[in-house]
Amino acid sequence: MNVQSFLITFREAFEAILIVGIIMTYLKRIGQTQWNKWVWVGVVLALAASYGVALVFQTVLTGFATMGSQNYLKIGIMLVSCVLLSHMVLFMGQQSRSMQGKLENKISAILTVGGVLNMIVHSFLVVVREGVETVFFFAAITGGDIQKALQSWGALIGLVAALIVGYLFFRGTRKIQLKTFFRITSVFLMMIAGGLLVQAVGIMQDIGIMGTIYKTAGGEVGEIYNLTAIMPEHPLDETQHIRDTGEQPLISGQVGIFFKAFLGYTQNPSVEEFVLYWAFYLVIIIMQGLQKKRYEKLHAVQSITGA
What we know:
- By secondary structure, the protein is mainly alpha-helical.
- 74% of the residues lie in helices and 0% in strands.
- It contains 11 helices and no strands.
């Protein structure tokens, strides 16, 4: 249980640290650190909300009898987070092409319009999603005794490890130029957003909210390929694969669950998961291209008019 608590806490905490760290590093690099306090407000509210979910689940709800209701909450948070992260990717891309002007003043003007709420909502949803997922995962591995997992050394070491890795990551970005920083972090955010989308689709298909165009003979959601023998998406899938085939997968399920949490990796995606995952990247790339053309056109007009 300690090892499971460590892995769960590390991956959930690190993803939250990664995104919140990108927001705060971004604000620091453009000289808008006055917004940091609102990011922290969102983080604190999210931690309080996560603790509230854990408390309710522990003392009021009836464990596994109500765990099905978590799916609706997870779907909603994942989809909203995907939209917000996608917006951030496009926003950062736009600003990276506007650095020749008075960047700080431009961004300050943009952030002023609903900026406080924007910072709070972004940081809140990022952290609360990880917090709520941690609560549900802890409930699963302990049979509903969340407090037992929270007090384990595995959870503590996982949190410390996530903080250390996050610190080392962002310390390494200090020497990176702002334009390069935008590009690198935009890729991270886009991959996380795409992963959230495909995870939400998978959950909706599992509980019957969303159908599929390809079903098995038994009427279940069909898969277009299966990579379980290469890398299972969860240790339980690894155990089942070993039991069924007598062979170890090429890559451990512990690695698979890490990639699933970050990138939405699926060992056996449905048609909808596969198509929407890559369609998401295509849409983002097209929108970034349109942004670039719009900026170049505006820059050309300003050059002609001398504005």
